[in-house]
Amino acid sequence: MEELKMPSRRGFGGGRGLVLSSAINTNTYKGRKEIMATVRRKKKPYASLIIMGVLSVAMYATLLLKQDIINQYFARGGAYAILPIATAFLFSFVHGSFTGNFWTVLGIEAAKKKKEVK
Fold first, then answer.
1. Residues in contact with 14: Cβ distance below 8 Å, sequence separation at least 6, in sequence order
2. DSSP secondary structure code for residue 31 in this structure
3. pLDDT tens figures, 5-27
4. Is 86 left (phi over 0), alpha (psi -120 to 50) or beta?
5. CB-based contacts of 74, cutoff 8 Å, min separation 6
6. DSSP assignment, residue 116?
7. Could you give the 3-state DSSP secondary structure of residue 112?
8. In this predicted model, what pLDDT tens digit does every residue of 41-64 receive, in sequence order?
9. Helices first, then strands: H and E counts in the chain
10. Torsion sign (Cα): 113, 50, 1, 34
């Protein structure tokens, strides 16, 4: 079965992207045949939400429980100076991914900005 993904438009489908399936349903109504496309909603990212949530909690717990060892490595200088920056990027990515999936599962999406034509 082939799928066609449609971009989400404000006011259409509750702001969520829809997936149109190529399967066609035919119904007969008062002697006329009606052809209807099947519309399915995108799946919510529950698995990714749980994985990133557990990973985020584990990273924060490790940071707080092992902060003496982590501070020793961060304070060494030289090539170790990149560790705090890399750690910040890693935390930002994991926590941001978890937060984005959390809001998607709740059904809250960012508003689309309208482009002004001058």
1. 107
2. T
3. 555 444 444 445 555 555 555 66
4. alpha
5. 80, 83, 84
6. P
7. coil
8. 889 999 999 999 999 999 999 999
9. 3, 3
10. negative
Tokens of 80: 């170790």
Residue 35, pLDDT above cutoff 70: no
Res 107 pLDDT > 70? yes
- What are the structure tokens assigned to 93, written together? 């990515």
Place of tokens 């982590």: 70
Question: Where do the structural domains in the chain lie, given as residue ranges?
Answer: 1-26+38-42, 46-106
Cα–Cα nearest to 9, from 101, 112, 104? 112
Sheet containing 18-29: give its strands across.
3-6, 18-29, 32-41
Amino acid, res. 62: T
Cβ atoms of 35 and 26 within 8 Å: the answer is yes
- Within a 10 A sphere around the Cβ of 31, how many other Cβ atoms? 5
Using DSSP, state whether 105 is helix, strand or coil: helix
Side-chain-side CA neighbours of 98 within 13 Å: the count stands at: 16
Cα–Cα dist 105/44, whole Å = 6
